[in-house]
Design goal:
Elements lengths: L24 H9 L5 H5 L5 E4 L14 E14 L5 E7 L5 E7 L13 E11 L2 E5 L2 E4 L4 H4 L4 E4 L8 H15 L9 H6 L5 H9 L8 H37 L9 H8 L8 H14 L6 E6 L5 H14 L3 E5 L3 H15 L6 E4 L5 H13 L4 E4 L13 E7 L6 H5 L13 E6 L5 H4 L7 E5 L10 E5 L4 H13 L3 E5 L15 H10 L7 E4 L5 H12 L5 E4 L12 E7 L6 H8 L10 E5 L5 H12 L3 H18 L18 H17 L9 H12 L9
This protein binds adenosine-5'-diphosphate and magnesium ion.
Length: about 700
Amino acid sequence: MSPTRPAASDLALTSPIESVPGVGPKRGEAFRRLGIPSVAHLIDHLPHRHEFEQGEDQIANLVVGQVGTATGRISAARVVPHGRKRFEAVLMDDMGGRLDLTWFGATYLARKITPGARLRVNGKLQRRGPLIQMVNPGWEFAEDDETESAESRLRPVYPASEDLPSKQIEKAVRAALPRVVHLLEDHLSEPFRRERSLPSLADAYRMLHRVDDAGVDKREAEAEVREARRRLTYDELLLLQLGVCMRKARLRNTLKAPELPWSETIDQRIRARIPFTLTQGQEAVVKDLAADLQRPFPANRLIQGDVGAGKTVVALYAMLMAVAAGHQAAMLAPTEVLAEQHYASLQSMLEGSKVRIELLTGSASSADRASIQARLASGDIDIVVGTHALLTGSVEFDNLAVVVIDEQHRFGVEQRAALRGKSGSEDSMPHTVVMTATPIPRTLAMTVFGDLDTSLLTGRPGGRSPVTTHWVVPSQSDEVYRSMRARIERGEQAFVVLPVIEGGDGEVGLRGVCSTAARLAEGPLAGCRVAELHGQMKRIDRERVMDDFRHHRTDVLVATTIIEVGVDVPNATMMVIDHAERFGLAQLHQLRGRVGRGEKEGVCVLIGEAITDEAAQRLRTIASVTDGFRLAEEDLRLRGMGEIFGTRQAGMNPFRLARFPEDTELLLMARRDAASWIDSSPELSKPEEQLIHRRLLKRHGEMLGLGDVA
Ligand code: ADP
Ligand code: MG
């Protein structure tokens, strides 16, 4: 709310984009399509890079398949009157680059675009035999002197579109920013900024957009861009950290959770249920958990432990603390297969005890479901294991105290928020324990998951050695299956994983589960007991197949990634992953964690082709790196943050500017600043904090579930 309305001729931040000089209705439309409806959006449309004028418009710098701009002189032009009528021209730049231009239907252009004309064109570059071309590019006449005068200016390059080239955006920014820059309020005080050597928000925008660059030399210009970027990146990180710290403070200060008692006796009773001695790593995590659960506010702990580190019993310990206190516990898994598996192993550990445990997944019959729901609501079930279905509103608990979420990366913050109120009263929440075998890189763990306390589950039970991994090409697969056969003859078992159920059913040319199972059973593994497992099978059939494999009634399980998480058969020592080039690093690591879980050493063979450089790099990396944490960092580097969150969790990648690992130092600074800020002002409710509070809620309120109280 600005106190005075700006005069009609003045530009305001909220002014529509069409009020910027030079932006008419048609260009305005193009801006809107790029997500820029107003002046404020324009100012916030940040350049993704900067470059010096020279060479920017060179044809040699264009990339096939991408939209680009080139400037040059027309060396030839003609109308092609037959076939699809078109106008063709050849553009040559000063460096001797050649670009062919074709406009379909637009033969009238022949009158305007004549040889000798200087033109700037914008469009998607395509290959055309040995040449390159643009079809129906946008174009404008370029003045002869333009390039010379602006020679070494550092220019912003904006995310652009085919009908709105970067230069047009730059023009609009230069027209608008100087007139509104005094309206940009800073949410950081002068002293706060000075202490951290950060420029003001207005200066940062001015420097990043390069609007007053007269007399600034090259080095200076680059330094300004760095300074501006540092301020805006810091802002981005600080806002998220403030949100995360605020959420954490709120959990502590305003929400209650059942205080679960702990004593030597309870500890001994719980340990009696665990069929082995805990590893040192497990002991340490159990200690963290026992401390968490005794507190009167909801724990929010992330347990990171590589595959096979032994997370399940740690979860059991936490759940039994709830049961010992007369409360309920729930365990959520990302897939039915995994839920079934957890249920089976928990049930066997709890055999002979009074603990009542049930399985509730999406494929439960409606009668079963109704009965389980009734008993959950009345408190006649102590532990329930299930999938996401457990989070739906219709499931009520009598007094839920502990929720264990396995394989965190599939659960967002929102789902965790859905647990609120499940423990009986509105301001109370169960303790949440999240377990992940996909290690979250340190940098990431401090961001979106920043409200979680973290425990590392280190080491492996029984001093098992990591799985040896080899990468081979498809022509070597006979040899691979021969060695699998040898293992089977020694009494061991094996997995074969494929990306699709049936070759030819989706993507042509891919080997699939069914055809591979048939081929192996007839050929390389004739005489061995080969079974199939995939998600299109009925649950009862899947259970039977898993059960047969677990009890060694079959030798080889040919499956989709349905076995990715949790499947635990110690006698399985070999895994073959076919079409390995199709899987991500995290997934490959998860998959290979399914072998080498017993006394015998595990081996994983990746059959894959280096279809892209990135695929080759991935396969080489997974074969040489066994440590899940290093892999996770590598994954982050190869794919970037957005990819890791994936499209299914759209909106989860909170970063527009920050890049990791480059901005780690800035992140640490933002985290320290946010923590002490929230410590002294947990709700950011001081008058001078109004602006930052508002911006914080706008940016992250929904994702962090902060909006509801504001
Ligand atoms: P993950 O961390 O991948 O979930 P699990 O909990 O499935 O690992 O444990 C892997 C295997 O190790 C299981 O077979 C489990 O029974 C066994 N295990 C776990 N803890 C111990 C231990 N302290 N001593 C011996 N075996 C253990
Ligand atoms: Mg597990």
